[in-house]
Amino acid sequence: MDCPWNELSLAFSRTSMFPFFDIAHYLVSVMALKHQPGAVAVAWKNPLSSWFTAMLHCFGGGILSCVLLGEPPLRFLANSTNILLASSIWYIVFFCPRDLVSQGYSFLPVQLLAVGMKEVTRTWKIVGGVTHANSYYKNGWIVMIAIGWARGAGGSIITNFEQLVKGCWKPEADEWLKMSYPAKVTLLGSVIFTFQQTNHLAISRHNLMFLYTMFLVATKITMMLTETSVMPFAFFEDTLSWMLFGWQQLFSSCEKRSETNSFLSGTGSSTSKPIADASDKVHKKHTKKTKFT
Amino acid sequence: MDCPWNELSLAFSRTSMFPFFDIAHYLVSVMALKHQPGAVAVAWKNPLSSWFTAMLHCFGGGILSCVLLGEPPLRFLANSTNILLASSIWYIVFFCPRDLVSQGYSFLPVQLLAVGMKEVTRTWKIVGGVTHANSYYKNGWIVMIAIGWARGAGGSIITNFEQLVKGCWKPEADEWLKMSYPAKVTLLGSVIFTFQQTNHLAISRHNLMFLYTMFLVATKITMMLTETSVMPFAFFEDTLSWMLFGWQQLFSSCEKRSETNSFLSGTGSSTSKPIADASDKVHKKHTKKTKFT
Amino acid sequence: MDCPWNELSLAFSRTSMFPFFDIAHYLVSVMALKHQPGAVAVAWKNPLSSWFTAMLHCFGGGILSCVLLGEPPLRFLANSTNILLASSIWYIVFFCPRDLVSQGYSFLPVQLLAVGMKEVTRTWKIVGGVTHANSYYKNGWIVMIAIGWARGAGGSIITNFEQLVKGCWKPEADEWLKMSYPAKVTLLGSVIFTFQQTNHLAISRHNLMFLYTMFLVATKITMMLTETSVMPFAFFEDTLSWMLFGWQQLFSSCEKRSETNSFLSGTGSSTSKPIADASDKVHKKHTKKTKFT
């Protein structure tokens, strides 16, 4: 006799995303598109272009996953039911009289419900991506992590690329220095589900899906209610980052301090140089004489 | 006993595009490339780059269709005969002594003949794309429309993308607000042939090919002779556009007028706001206080 | 009894690139990445982004070849051993205490050895690409040349594209007017090995691999030692270029001179126009009256 917890998580893992969770995902995606500057004007002047962009927002993760696996990127168009559902949502969001849908969406409880349901679909996408990649590359764990990540959070890459081609988006180099919360939490999920798939985690898939989904929904709703951008695992992330990548900065700053000290004792003036250039300086030391201004 | 009309359209549908219609298509494509600013200089300084761009102009639709269906984009290079034919045309267009080919092409009857024959190839590409997509996705009508459209008019996407990568093209956001005539007429053809493929149109394929081709050639030649950009189906396009997408603007303008009236009666001054922001205003009404300057 | 030369080239062609030649290739690629402006700062702020860029530098040619053949671009991630090897090299190059690896690499003998070994891997990639394309398209010689070229020197296209998307690279139109030395020498190798594959060259593959590799390594090391950018086959390249593409410029300059002479005898003043516009002038002669300022 299965315990109630097991039955609950099993039933949860067998829930179909169609139609309610998919509707929530499409609604949140199209509303995000609508809030972009000029999106409404584009919808009225060229509805086909607006519809296409909305489809990229709704199905971007699956498209990216197809591109990476060499499958037809247009495959999502074969699922006519979901396409019609997403198209209907696009139509009523942009063309509803008196903008009723946007007004309804502006109420916080409605937003919380829709965003919470969208986070549930994220788990399903990650799991789908990991198992699909496993069917191609048995135990190719890096591929599984990449495809799970692409399916769960890759839509923004597709939509950013479309904006780049349209000339609406000019990427700044430092944008790539920051990963968004959805990207980080999806990468974490993809790693966890890959380890579960390769039997490195002693937990069944349906239990893991339940726990991970609860984590996603709880953190997302908390962040929305408290209007904070501090991520729940920021401490672990910083610690891991320092352990793997931070200690060389420690060496470099010690070296810089000893250089500055010897310089100070030599000339009596001080220079301030950013830590980020420390390794370049070490590299150039053997090639040219350092200039002091 | 078949009627003469049926025999004519059947014989027409069995015409091979190779070599004369293909030559016309390659000639028009390469001449369009040659008229771009700086194309001749590029041909003399880096013939390989110019040749590659010419191949994208000639085979761009097929390349895009392969990309969308997950097939090798380089597949067009396997057809050595067509590649050599297109390369020869590129060579004589750019490197003919005294530029004889360009001089010959500048005569209007020659242009009309070449452009007319190129329009014939458009029908063959649309039909090829629709049937090819149908072999992948039985009754996937959205995929069939998309592939027919890509094959018939997708070349410009490939060539624009190549120019974007080369830094020669900076897309403006409003370019995407206007669809060109080839794009519109190819989309119409793709929809029609898809409905015919899925047996929703009571007309045989060869008859439809004949009628659609005659329509394409007649409208294109008329537009060239009259030097007009007004499209023949503009009226139907505007009507359909207004029916599907225009009525919300009607609601919004009524609402804006009533807002202006109440404002006028309140303060005695007037504000003018564009219709395109009307829905954004409705959305923001519940979130922040509107400022009047 | 095989001659010693044959045995040597046969043994050479059976050498495995893993691990030493692959290590050299990854080292040279990652050091090239490190020398880009801001690469070290990116590695410290977003190690994942830096790692991804390093993987594109190391495996870019294979990724491009997969994209062109419609295979999964992520396939390189399935080879976990090579990925771990390349990742380790990235890690120690960017995060080694006191930047020891960069200091070691700055010694010329170390650079020459690494670069020489990397050139050996180029031959293996070209041959791999040509044979792989031949398995898809029997005797599709254009495809074989293209895939051999993509595998051997296509990595820069992938990395430039990634920089374009990140906003770090703005391509200038005239960059496409110059092909780099690796691109030219890889194209030459791809053509030679394709002719050998289609039995148009009376030389065995292992002998050709040995000769081509010796040519690559010798020229590359010579160019590094003499710090020259003059390519060894520049004379043949210029001659071939003039034979195929240069004689029309001769016609155009003769025509321009005769136009100038007739103009001089007519008005007594002179105009100077670049040769590159000569063909545009010929084309426009029939369409509009030329203005003289």
Automatic annotation (TrEMBL), chains A, B, C:
It catalyses: K(+)(in) = K(+)(out). Pfam families: TRIC (PF05197). It comes from Sousa chinensis. One of its GO terms (molecular function) is potassium channel activity. Signal peptide: none annotated. Keywords: Endoplasmic reticulum, Ion channel, Ion transport, Membrane, Potassium, Potassium channel, Potassium transport, Transmembrane, Transmembrane helix, Transport. Residues 262-273 have a biased composition (Polar residues). Intracellular monovalent cation channel required for maintenance of rapid intracellular calcium release. Acts as a potassium counter-ion channel that functions in synchronization with calcium release from intracellular stores. Activated by increased cytosolic Ca(2+) levels. This is Transmembrane protein 38B. InterPro entries: TRIC_channel (IPR007866). Homotrimer; conformation seems to be controled by binding to diacylglycerol (DAG). It is found in: Endoplasmic reticulum membrane. GO terms for cellular component: endoplasmic reticulum membrane. It is a multi-pass membrane protein. Belongs to the TMEM38 family. Residues 282-293 have a biased composition (Basic residues). It comes from the Eukaryota. Residues 262-293 are annotated as: Disordered.
